[in-house]
Amino acid sequence: MANYNFNKDLPVGEMGELTVRKFLTEKYGASYIGKSEGNELKYWDIKFKFPNDTEVTYEVKNDVYVVPERKLPNGLVAQGFDTGNIFIEFESRGKDTGINVTKADWWVNTFHYLNELWFIKVSNLKKLIKENNFKQTEQSGDDGSNTRGYLIPREQLKEHFIVKKL
Predict the structure, then answer these.
(1) In which domain, by residue range, is 115 found?
(2) In this structure, are residues 70 and 86 in contact, taking their beta carbons and an 8 Å threshold?
């Protein structure tokens, strides 16, 4: 589960990037170019080159909060957890972040426990946000970060995404 602590949550985010990397290389023959690195503001997470020589960047968000109900070995059922939303960050610590600053071509939400990847072009995601009045959250990150984001109802707007099973 996420910790609401950037440094502790970083490995969780990197796990999502590795999932997307494996998926794109195995299913689409993409060649991994690299990560956006450094102390400066990152405008995308990972970059690939596809067999048609097109280079594509991705912003990747790994959602580990959505956990399906599951049967345990002892026959009991573990209750799942799912708000039904995709969280799209747009501000943290009083600065624009996430969808407000990315220059990636595609946005990907990985749902680790559902084994799903939800792809959407960044331009389409921005249009979707502009055309809807999505609920906004506050205090969604570290204590004092005042992280804010949009809550997009996942199933209601699924047709706007390319959903891939792992």
Answers:
(1) 6-36+43-165
(2) no
What CATH number is associated with residue 78? 3.40.1350
- The model's pLDDT over 113-139, given as tens digits with 9 standing for 90+, comes to 889 999 999 999 999 999 999 999 887
Global pTM reads: 0.84
CB 91 within 8 A of CB 134: no
Residue 95 domain-assigned? Answer: yes
Let me know: does 112 contact 16? Beta carbons within 8 Å: yes
